Design the sequence.
C-alpha cells in the first residue's frame, strides 16, 4: 500500500502509488543504505523486483491499446 503523509503534495500521475512504494523500497534497502551503492546498481542486482515488475506492468497498461476499451487496471 502507498504511504501517505499529511505534509506532502498528492501525486496525481498514473501509477503514483506503485511508484512511491518502489522508490521507498529502493532508498530504504540495505544495498543503498549500508553499502552506499546507487539505486540503479541495486536494481541490477535484483532488489525490489516485485515492485519493479508491478510498476512496469502499470506503465505498460497505459500504452496498451486494448485498455482504451477495457479501462486501466486498478493500481
Sequence:
Amino acid at each position: 500500500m502507498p504511504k501517505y503523509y499529511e505534509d506532502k503534495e498528492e501525486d496525481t500521475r498514473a501509477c503514483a502509488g506503485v511508484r512511491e512504494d518502489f522508490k521507498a523500497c529502493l532508498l530504504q534497502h540495505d544495498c543503498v543504505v549500508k553499502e552506499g551503492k546507487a539505486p540503479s546498481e541495486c536494481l541490477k542486482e535484483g532488489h525490489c523486483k516485485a515492485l519493479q515488475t508491478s510498476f512496469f506492468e502499470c506503465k505498460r497498461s497505459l500504452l496498451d491499446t486494448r485498455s482504451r476499451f477495457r479501462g486501466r487496471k486498478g493500481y
Notes: Helices lie at 16-28, 30-33, 39-44, 49-63, 67-70. The chain has a mean pLDDT of 81.
